[in-house]
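Archive transcription. Copying these from loose printouts into the bound notebook so they stop getting lost. Printout 1 of 2:
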Amino acid sequence: MGNDNFNKSKYMTTNAGKKELNFFERADDLLRKKSYKEAAANYLNAILISREDAKSYFGLGMCYKNTKNYAKAIKYLDKAAQIDENYFEAYYELGICHLLEGIPCGAIKNFVRAVQVNPENPDAILQLGIAHEMCEEFDMALMIYQKLIENSPEYKKAYEHKSALLMKMNRYREASLVLNDLIRRSPSDTDAFAGIGVCFDKLGKRIEAQRYYRKFLQKNPLSSQAQFIKSRLEKLKSLSVEKVKKFSIV
C-alpha cells in the first residue's frame, strides 16, 4: 500500500512537460541551423504533447515561411497569435507572410496589431506603411513614413521608402528634400546623393543632377549603381555640349 500516495497524473504531466521541452529545444536548434524539415517535425511533436504552446506554433510557422510555404506559415502563425494575444513576433511575421503571399491588405491588420503590442518597434511601423503602399493607399503610406521619421529620426529606412514612393508618384522635388534631410541626419548614407541626382534629372535640372551624380561617384566609385550613374552623367554632359553648339550656331 506504499503507493497509495503516488500521484500518477502529476507524474505523467511532468514527464510530458519534459518531452515537450526536449522537442521544442531540439526544434529551435534545428531551425537556427536551417534544417527546416527536421525542425518542423520536432515542433509538431511538441504541439502533440501541448496543444496550447504558442511558441511551438510560431516555430512551425517560421519553418514553413523559410521554405516559402506561406499559406501554411500563416495558418500556424495565426494559431500562435490566437493563443497569445500579445505575441508581437507572431503578428509581425503574419504580416510579412501576407506580403510575401501577395495579400498586402491582409497584412495591414497584423501589422496594426503588432504596433499596438509594441509601439516602439520601427520595423513594424515601416512594414505597415509598405502594406498600405502595396494596396495603393499612397497617402496613408506617406503619412506613416512621415510619422516614423518624426518619431525615429535616425531610422533611415523611413526616409528611403518615403522618397522612393514620392518618386513613384512623380513628386521629385519633395523626394529630393526627404533625401537631403536623410543626408543631414546621416552623412554616411551617400546613396542618397544618387537619389537626389535622379530627382533633379527628372525635373530637367541637368546642372544640379550632374553635381549630385558626381558626389555619389566620388563617395561610391565601386557601387553597383556606379555604371548607370556614369552613363547618365555622360549623357547629360553630351546634352549640355549639344545645347551650347546650338546656341553658338544661332
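Printout 2 of 2:
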Amino acid sequence: METSSPFSRPPQAAAPSRLAKLTSLLPARMRERVDPYLEALELLAEIRSPQVLRSLGPSGLRGLLLKRGKQGVPTQILAHHRAHFDWGYPEDQPEMHDLFVRAKQGQWDGDSLPWHISVDPENPEVPLLPRDFLAMDLLKEWGYALNPKEERLMIHSVVSWMLSQFLHGEQGALFAAAQVTEAVQFFDGKLYGSTQVMDEGRHVEVFSRYLDSKLGKLYHINDNLFVIIDALMSDGRWDMKFLGMQIMVEGLALGAFGTLYRLTSEPLLRELLRMVILDEARHVHYGVLALREHITKQLSQKEREEREDWAFEVALLMRNRFMAYEVYDEWFAGRMPRATWRMFIDRSPSMREFRHVMFNRLMPNLREIGLLSDRIRPRYAQAGLLHYSEGAAANQLTAKDVIRDLNTPLVLPN
C-alpha cells in the first residue's frame, strides 16, 4: 500500500518557476552552472519596495552574483554612519542602564568552558546531531543513499557549516556593535553597546576555537548572510543597524543556537551555546529598547513603512534561503541537481524546528517595536508567519525564562 508521506514524492514534483522554465531547455550541466544566478535574480525580483531594493540590491550583487564572501581575501565594505557624541553624559534610558548593569555582571571568560572534553565528530555514542536532523531516508529514496559512516561525516559537515555561519555572523555583529555604539543617540545605549562589543569578540573567540580545535573544518560565509552583513555595514542609518543586527540577525542566531542546543549530545558544544544564548538574549532586548520609541514616535509613516518592508524581505531571505549550498558543493555537486538539494533541506525535520524557533523569537520583537502594523500583517500571514507574533518579546523575558525555554521539550504546531 502506497503512503502519502511527502518523503515518497519524487524530487521533480516541485512546480518550476518562470525563470526555471526558461532554462529547462539548457543542457543539465549548463543548467546547474546558471542555477545560483537564477536563484539570486528570483530573490531580487521578489522585493516589491523600491527603497528596500535600493538598500539590499547592491549587497545582493556583491554577495549573490560576485561571491565576494568566497574570494579568499578580506572584504572591504565602505561604512556610512555618523558618530554621535554627547558631552553631557546624561542618564537618559533607565531600562537601558539596568540592562548595562546586567551585562557587566554577565560577562564570562571563554577559557572557562570545558575545553578538555574530547570531541569526535564521528562518534555515534555522542553525536553532534541525531541522524534525523536531516532527512537521510529521503536521500535513499531519491537514489543518493549514504552508508552510516558517510551519514556521520555529512552531519559533521553540516554542524561545521552551521558553526562557521555563526562565526561569520558574530564577526559581523562585532563590527555592527562597534558602529552602533558610535552612532546611537542616547548615552545609556553607548554604555550598554560597549558590553556587546566585548560579548561579540568573545563569541568570535569561542566559535573559532571550537571549529579549529574540535571539528577541524571552516566553511566560507553563506552568500545570503554576506548580503545581510554587507547591507548593514554600509547603511548609514543607526536604527537600520539596530533593526538588522539586534532584531533580525540576533533573532536568527537565537533560533539557530536554541535548535542546536536542544539536539546536540556533545557537552562542550552545549555549554558553549548556553553561555552565548544568554548574551544574545540581552542583545535582542537592547534592540527592542533602542527601537521601540524611535520607530513608533520619531519616524514618519513613510520611514516606518520602509523599515517594515525591509524587515519582511530579510525575514523571507532568512526563511527561504539558508540552504547550506557550501555543504552541497562538497557532497553532491555534479551528481545531484541543486533543485533537489533545496527540496531535501526544505523537507528535513531540522529546518522545520529551526524556522519555528527562529520566528517564535523574531515576530514578537517586530510587534513590540512597531513594525507589525495592519498594513504588513497580511503579507506575514500569507507567508505563514503571523501566528508567531503572539509570544513574549525580548524585553519581557528574563535569563531564567530563556534557560527554561531551552530545557523545555519543543512541541511543533501541526
